[in-house]
Write a sequence for this structure.
């Protein structure tokens, strides 16, 4: 009996809608209008940090982490459902990749209750960011009395999230995890777009053994173009450029891409392989968001083969549309690699404006083979080796074969 009375008389957990009213000093939120944006889940960390920066600069803030299934509009304006729990309950946290060697543990549902500082004309604001695991989305909500304030707030937060994005100027690899459905066709696990921070070693010119003519072509068509983008734009020279690296397997195409990534440290470098090649629209949307960007599509003949033999004609059409849709002054470069240029769709490799230059990577000549061998063996005692004999015996061997 005593235990029952203690439980009955104990203070009950506060409810989120009641807390919002109390914190904002209001009896009703009827005059507040809610603005909502559904964004990809991979933007969650950027959005969370942007909200923290925005609210910390302009408002007196109380942050509340509490999970609720109802949207913000229902919490502020809707009739309280009979069996829905609105009690404040600690939100779960999820680890998010936030850098090459960094994770951020963030609540999956958080409210920011914002009151203007003294002398500031900004109105009161309620912000909310929540992660929808079922739809793989980040839902950003803003409630304000003035529709203009709500819209302006969302725009500023989105701009801040892009300007300070955790992905900007990193080397990234895009991957897609397929979704699954049950026997009735209902989604059990949604398709997931994943962005992986790719570790890479800085490569200097001495670390890269490459044909000098090829090096100069890469420098002129990719590196210099990005480094001089401001000058080119000022003179109304288009900075959009695409190159295709082709040649037998193991001839250094991937290594050349690593070299380009090392040279363009102030560019977001996006590497796309495997099944991610099938998601062209998402790849280019991501690149546009983080430009200046360099998109590297590897082994493209697997998906973008000639239309007569292509099993992915709709994806091929999507790539052509995306390449044509890039504006002349968008800072997005494209590098494609293939082991089989003969299989490639002619509308990609032969069409000016899509691919500016096709660059051949073949087995190295004698001088280059010697440089490769000396480079690979530089950390070993090589006094007893006859490099001339090794070079002669390795005629026709690719760089990968020499390294092996």
């Amino acid at each position: 009996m005593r235990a029952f009375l203690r439980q009955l008389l104990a203070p009950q957990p506060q409810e989120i809608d009641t807390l919002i009213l109390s914190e904002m000093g209001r009896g009703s939120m009827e005059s507040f209008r809610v603005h909502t944006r559904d964004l990809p889940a991979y933007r969650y960390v950027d959005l969370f940090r942007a909200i923290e920066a925005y609210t910390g600069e302009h408002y007196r803030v109380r942050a509340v982490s509490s999970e609720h299934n109802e949207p913000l509009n229902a919490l502020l304006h809707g009739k309280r459902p009979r069996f829905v729990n609105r009690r404040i309950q600690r939100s779960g946290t999820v680890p998010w990749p936030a850098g090459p060697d960094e994770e951020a543990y963030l609540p999956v549902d958080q409210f920011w209750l914002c009151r203007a500082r003294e002398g500031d004309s900004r109105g009161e604001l309620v912000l909310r960011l929540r992660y929808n695991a079922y739809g793989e989305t980040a839902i950003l909500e803003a409630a304000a009395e003035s529709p203009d304030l709500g819209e302006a707030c969302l725009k500023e937060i989105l701009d801040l999230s892009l300007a300070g994005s955790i992905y900007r100027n990193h080397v990234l690899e895009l991957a897609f995890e397929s979704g699954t459905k049950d026997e009735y066709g209902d989604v059990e696990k949604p398709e997931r777009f994943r962005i992986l921070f790719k570790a890479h070693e800085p490569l200097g010119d001495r670390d890269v053994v490459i044909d000098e003519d090829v090096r100069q072509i890469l420098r002129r068509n990719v590196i210099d173009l990005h480094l001089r983008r401001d000058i080119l734009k000022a003179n109304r020279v288009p900075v959009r450029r695409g190159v295709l690296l082709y040649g037998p397997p193991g001839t250094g195409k991937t290594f050349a891409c690593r070299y380009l990534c090392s040279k363009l440290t102030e560019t977001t470098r996006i590497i796309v392989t495997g099944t991610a090649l099938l998601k062209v629209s998402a790849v280019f949307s991501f690149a546009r968001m983080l430009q200046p960007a360099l998109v590297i599509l590897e082994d493209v003949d697997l998906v973008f083969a000639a239309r007569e033999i292509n099993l992915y004609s709709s994806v091929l059409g999507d790539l052509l549309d995306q390449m044509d849709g890039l504006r002349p002054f968008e800072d997005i470069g494209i590098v494609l690699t293939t082991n089989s240029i003969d299989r490639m769709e002619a509308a990609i490799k032969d069409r000016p404006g899509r691919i500016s230059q096709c660059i051949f990577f073949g087995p190295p000549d004698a001088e280059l083979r010697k440089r490769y061998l000396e480079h690979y063996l530089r950390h070993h005692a090589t006094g007893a080796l006859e490099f001339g004999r090794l070079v002669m015996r390795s005629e026709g061997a690719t760089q990968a074969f020499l390294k092996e």
